[in-house]
Amino acid sequence: MRPYTQKARKGEQGVAIFIAIFALLLVSVVAMGMMAMAGTETALNSNYKSSVQAFYDAKAGVEEGRGRLWTGNPNALAGFMTAPGTTMGVGQVRYILNPAGGETVNPTDMSAGNIYADRQYSAEWGVNPPAGAPTIGSISTQAGVPGPLYKWVRITPRTEASAGIDVNGDGVLDNANPLYYDGTQQMLSSQIPVNDTAYQVFEVTALAVTPDGSRRLVQYTVSPNVMNLNFPSALTFDGPGPVYNAPSSNPFDVNGNDRSGSNPLPGCTVPVQPAKSAMGVVNPGDIAAASSGIPNNRLNHYLGAGGTPSIGNVSGSVPANEQTVTNLQNLVQVISNVANNVLTGPVNGLSAAQLGSASNPQITVVNGDLNVAGAGTGYGILVVTGNFTFSGDWGWRGVVLVIGQGNMQENGGGNNEFDGAVLVAKTLDGAGNPLATLGVPTVNWTGGGGNGVYYDSCWINNATSGVTYKVLSFRELSQ
What pTM value is reported for the model? Predict the structure, then answer.
């Protein structure tokens, strides 16, 4: 029996070796599979991370483009884009370029080897981007700090065709008229209603490419924030019992006919507005009070809607945000939030930067008194919460809001003028506390010279286009 037992054990030992080898192979296969899965997961994570990075790089690009459209941005595109208040025509395009060191980024080069070619442009416009389109460099990279890896930002006007949206529902995707936005809806530039404040809509598109080749293309639709400013007259007394002491100077005029002044805005495409009252009051009985301050031989220097002098009850045309103490104070705060310059009075004079220019209108808020003299012209929106006193050849192109103490004083003649609109409202008492109801607005104008106030919708539009840009929509584009 013993020899048989030894042979059986030898056979069993062979089986054990086979099982051990098989188990080792199985463990090896499982280990290799797990390693492969880990490698795949790592690759997927890496690809996802790169793709997410490209997305946020592209988003940084559209944010830079949107931010630099604002004229108050330290690196604004003023002078590179069309002037605020004028239309960027269909077919125009601007690029912001952000190449890495030593590389060339040319989005208008459609050759097969150009990985930065703007091939999506033709999907919107039906043609390739125009060769030689104006370009400007990015300002995203700080010294020693790497910036976002987007390659270019494109800015174009928006049309129905480029957006793929039939805005007016006529069954045709218009590609000839740019779109405008009035705070409520988009509309064709050819269909902006009279008295409607609307601003052009732009598409801001950015391409980002990471070093390992991930690509993302995103797009904003933007338009200036709408403050709903509306002016029913060239000079509006927003409160009861206005005090108006007019100059006796023969060249002095207050005119509610649109663009009647001597300083037209070049290139303005805003439709000419119907005639406004030269001066507006908010109570029927205040027409006589305002008229009493005009010399009898100067009544025909107040021209516009209605009779002569052109003084109208505009209470039905004053927007809600300009009707009460609370709403007017809120309006001042809204403007202050987007202002280029917020100054604490008393302020004696404004610098050239604070005065701005037609292509770079400023929004300046003076919390307190403002005194200016000599020669000077401001552009944009001026808000004075204290007393506003000026003299000499001093004027403004845009909007002047004397909201607070509601007191505007001109001392001495000059030969400049106010083109746009002026509104005076008393909302504060002498200590700077809000009144329960609107107080008496006051305008004392002595030694008029050639000064005057002229309603001008172009300058109003130019002034209010200096605000920040609002994102109307955001989307990612296929490539």
Answer: 0.68
- Same-domain status, 360 and 217: no
**The one-letter amino acid at 269:** T
In the three-class reduction of DSSP (H, G, I as helix; E, B as strand; rest coil), residue 405 is classed as coil
Same domain, 217 and 240: no
Helix (H) / strand (E) element for 361: namely: none
Q: Are residues 141 and 258 in the same domain?
A: no
Q: Report pLDDT digits (tens) over 111-161.
A: 999 999 999 999 999 999 999 899 999 987 666 656 788 999 999 999 999
Task: Confirm whether 279 is domain-assigned.
Answer: yes
Q: Are residues 258 and 400 in the same domain?
A: yes
Q: Domain span at residue 359?
A: 233-464
Q: State the residue for tokens 């070796």.
A: 17
Structure token digits, residue 225: 């924030």
- Which amino acid belongs to residue 133? A
- Rounded to 5°, the CA angle 18-20-26 comes to 105
Looking at the fold, whether 267 and 416 belong to one and the same domain comes out as yes
Pairing of strands 94-97, 150-157: antiparallel
Evaluate whether residue 36 is within a structural domain.
no
Domain count, the chain: 2
298: Cβ–Cβ under 8 A, 6 or more apart, which residues?
246, 248, 250, 252
Q: Which two tokens stand for residue 30?
A: 């499982």
Residues 249, 447: Cα–Cα separation, whole Å: 6
The string of pLDDT tens digits covering residues 342-368 is: 999 899 999 999 999 988 889 999 999
**For residue 243, how many other CB atoms are within 10 A of its CB?**
17
pLDDT of the residue at 39? 62
276 and 153 within one domain: no
237 and 378 in a single domain? The answer is yes
Contacts of 83 (CB under 8 A, 6+ apart): 266, 267, 358, 359, 462
Strands 233-237 and 418-428: parallel
Residue 300 in tokens? 């025909």
Residues contacting 13, CB < 8 A, separation 6+: none
- Residue 297 maps to a domain: yes
Q: With respect to residue 101, please indicate whether it lies within any of the assigned structural domains.
A: yes
pLDDT given at position 288: 92
Reduced to 3 states (helix: H, G, I; strand: E, B; else coil), residue 4 is helix
Closest CA to 319 of 328, 307, 332: 328
Are both 257 and 144 inside the same structural domain?
A: no
